[in-house]
Known about the structure:
Layout: H1 20-33, E1 38-42, E2 50-55, E3 61-66, H2 69-78, E4 83-85, H3 86-89, H4 93-105
Parallel strand pairs: 1-4
Antiparallel strand pairs: 1-2, 2-3
Amino acid sequence: MAWxxxxxxxxVAPHDGSDLASARSHLQDFVRTRRGVEAYxxxxxxxxATTVVLIAHDGEWTRRxxxxxxxxxxxxxxxxxxxxxxxxxxxxxRMRAWTTRQRQNGT
Length: 107
């Protein structure tokens, strides 16, 4: 069935955390170009890989998949920012506020 292959075409990057170098580079760039960044590690689910969400002081955020929970924590700690387990802390309100503003602005 075609819906099983959804998002896995050759022109679409996988979201399973297999591209560790690209994810690390993106996260490093985000930290370098924003201030007050914190990292939140999200657990893997049946549908998604373990991810790291970086959230800046103003609520702007980015997310990248990583191969495993230990690697996610290692990468996040290597960014030299505060690191949290989202299962224990939840997400900061500034992330939701930023997302709401983006939707209202049509971006």
